[in-house]
Every structure is written in C-alpha cells, then in structure tokens.
Amino acid sequence: MENTTTPTYLCNVEFDWHYPGQPESTVVYERYFESDSADTDDVAKEFIESFIKNYQIGVCTTSNIKVIEVKRVLTFDDWVEKYNPVKNKISESNSFEGYAFDYCNDCGDTDCISCMEWSFVKNQAPDTVWTMVAEGDDFALISGFHWVNRHCYFVSSKPVEKEDLSTVYTVI
Ligand SMILES: [Zn+2]
Q1: Residues β-bridged to residue 101
Q2: Where are the beta strands (DSSP E) in 48-168?
Q3: Virtual CA dihedral for 141, 100, 154, 150, nearest 10 degrees?
Q4: How far is the CA of 120 from the centre of ligand 1 (A)?
Q5: In this structure, which long-range contacts are made by residues 141-144, counting pairs with CB atoms below 8 Å and at least 24 apart in sequence?
C-alpha cells in the first residue's frame, strides 16, 4: 500500500532573538512539524524556514540558530494507515474518527451501550486490541489491553507487528 500520511517530526530549535534596545533573549521553539523530506537536516531547515520570519520582522534579528532535536513521531494517522482499524458500529460516536470503543465495568444494565462496546473489544484477539491512554492533556495509543489511565479502546484489522509491541502512537 502506498504511504499517504506525511511523516510528523517533533522539532526543537533554539536561537537568540534581538529586539533593538532590549537585552538579547534566547527563544526555545518546539513544535510538531510535517515533512516529506528524507533526512532530518532538511526537516530542520524547512522547520526553521516555516517560522523564523515571524521573529525577523522590521528591526528584529535572530542569531545562533541551533537545532536541539528533530525526532520522528508516529501519530494516530500513521497507525490508522498501517493497521486499518475497525469502525465502532455499536454506538454513533465520532470519537477518533469513529474508531474508538468505550468500556464499562459490567454495570449490570442490559441496555448499557458501553458494556456492549466493551464486550465486543474483549472478544477480539488480544493482538488486535489497542488502548488509548491519557497522559495529562495528551493521548497516546499502545498495543494490547491496558487499564491504567485508559480512555478508550481500538481494534485493528491486522495484528500488531513485533516492532510495534512497545510503540507509542501520539495523538496530535
Ligand atoms: Zn455498562
């Protein structure tokens, strides 16, 4: 299958910013950035070009631009493309593009939608189940059944590959 998702990088750059009449200040600029460039030096260049002009307006200047880090990040979109998840047909929720399944701790209510979703997930092969965990305001998707900080579950149509057993897919 052709790769359609643009790779995402977490880029971190530091530079000195000078505004005449003010002491020089060091700016740390960190953002997620998408790029099709093959090597990280090019990604860093594109990243810097994408925002540095905002700091060079009028009499303001920048100097000592340093690339601290350019790191490939695997995203939820990368995961969708690779694992082709199953849509949740039990509830109408559009949460996570309609792929998320809720859970319930056997509340005993026979009409409980969350219980139905959870029992569907529990009946899947464990190597096709993924857990969305909340980390503060961020979400990350990991392979398998997890309980701590769980937010919802996903079911993929392909079993997890060995290389992804501890991969963290970030929701951006
Ligand atoms: Zn329930």
Answers
A1: 153
A2: 61-73, 129-135, 138-143, 150-155
A3: 50
A4: 13
A5: 141/76, 141/79, 141/168, 141/169, 141/171, 142/166, 142/167, 142/168, 142/169, 143/167
Cα of 85 from ligand 1 centre, angstroms: 23
Using an 8 Å Cβ cutoff, are 15 and 27 in contact? yes
Q: How far is the CA of 141 from the centre of ligand 1 (A)?
A: 23
* Residue 148 amino acid letter: V
Distance (Å, rounded) from C-alpha 11 to C-alpha 25?
Answer: 20
Q: Dump pLDDT digits (tens) for 77-94.
A: 999 999 999 999 999 878
Element (H, E) at 81: helix 76-83
pTM: 0.87
Question: Is the pLDDT at 105 greater than 90, yes or no?
Answer: no
